């Protein structure tokens, strides 16, 4: 294992920060910030692979499947956060986007760092989730060789699921286990081996893109508005009404009336106002066009 780690880009000493422990606080922060500035450039180089991943995940969810992340340590917790944000932001049903975290999914206890070494446990988690060919499983690991994640990926492939890998090194076992691999090679960390830093930031950026672009493709965004949000508190109700107002450019009074007629459904309220129809017709149009507002308002023709 030691020899394997020595070969990883993420495990190399960073010559730019080797005196970081001698520096004043502001200079420490400047060095970390300089390292972080490289991350967006690295991720930009991965856009083609990320686009392919979006198409795979969009097709899976549209076909009744799921997006299932698998990770350990920092990578797993980043994935868990992304999965947890999808229902309130985009109104996804529970379980459509989920995360398997090595050592258990609770965020309220110290993680069992040894769990990431259990290849069989990763495979078993996939079996317990009843993964099928409809699903996409995304393994995330900075090293590209975490046994728990690899076990899950290989079991998912054996069950016919599409498998995507996200890592921060090249030529890893993850690349061999995946149908598609996204290799965001962020290089040595400011603190050697602390992959929650640049590697974790790259992972977060990639997952943001993956789920955001997927939800756009699924019709959960109109213009740049999150029209499937779950308005479960007063702040979100106000935001939902504001979204209707921005989307339709009508008076607050008209928004209130349409929002009430739509029983709080933002998409329905927008179609009521934009297409000049009642709530029943608005719902019918949306159902006919899989929830895509532009298509619902234009007879199935996607317009800009």
CATH homology superfamily name of the largest domain:
Glucose-6-phosphate isomerase like protein, domain 1
Secondary-structure arrangement, i.e. CATH architecture of the largest domain:
3-Layer(aba) Sandwich
The total count of helices amounts to: 13
Biggest beta sheet attributes: 5 strands, parallel
Provide the helix percentage.
40-55%
- Measured distance between first and last alpha carbons: 53 Å
Low-confidence stretches: none
Strand content is: 5-15%
The secondary-structure class comes to alpha/beta
Arrangement of strands in the largest sheet: 2-1-3-4-5
Instruction: Characterize the quaternary organization of these chains.
Output: single chain
CA-atom Rg in angstroms = 22 Å
Mean pLDDT: 94
CATH fold assignment of the largest domain: Rossmann fold
Instruction: State the shape.
Output: globular
**CATH class membership of the largest domain:** Alpha Beta
């Amino acid at each position: 294992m030691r020899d394997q780690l020595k070969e990883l880009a993420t495990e190399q000493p960073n010559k730019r920060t080797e005196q970081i422990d001698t520096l004043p606080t502001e200079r420490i922060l400047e060095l970390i910030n300089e390292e972080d500035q490289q991350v967006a450039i690295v991720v930009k180089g991965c856009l083609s692979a990320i686009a392919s991943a979006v198409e795979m995940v969009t097709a899976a969810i549209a076909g009744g499947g799921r997006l299932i992340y698998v990770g350990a340590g920092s990578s797993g917790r980043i994935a868990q956060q992304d999965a947890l944000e999808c229902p309130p932001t985009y109104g996804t049903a529970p379980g459509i986007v989920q995360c398997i975290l090595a050592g258990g999914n609770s965020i309220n206890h110290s993680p069992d760092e040894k769990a990431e070494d259990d290849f069989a446990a990763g495979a078993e988690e996939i079996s317990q989730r009843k993964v099928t060919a409809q699903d996409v499983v995304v393994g995330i690991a900075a090293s590209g060789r975490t046994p728990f994640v690899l076990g899950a990926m290989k079991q998912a492939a054996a069950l016919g699921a599409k498998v995507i890998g996200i890592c921060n090194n090249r030529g890893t076992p993850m690349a061999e286990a995946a149908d598609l691999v996204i290799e965001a090679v962020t290089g040595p960390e400011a603190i050697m081996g602390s992959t929650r830093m640049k590697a974790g930031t790259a992972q977060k950026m990639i997952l943001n893109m993956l789920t955001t672009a997927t939800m756009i493709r699924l019709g959960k965004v109109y213009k740049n508005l999150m029209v499937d949000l779950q308005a479960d508190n007063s702040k979100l109700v106000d935001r939902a009404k504001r979204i209707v107002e921005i989307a339709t450019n009508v008076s607050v009074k008209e928004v209130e009336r349409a929002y009430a007629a739509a029983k709080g459904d933002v998409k329905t309220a927008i179609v009521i106002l934009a297409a000049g129809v009642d709530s029943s017709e608005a719902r019918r149009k949306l159902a006919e066009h899989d929830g895509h507002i532009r298509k619902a308002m234009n007879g199935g023709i996607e317009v800009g």
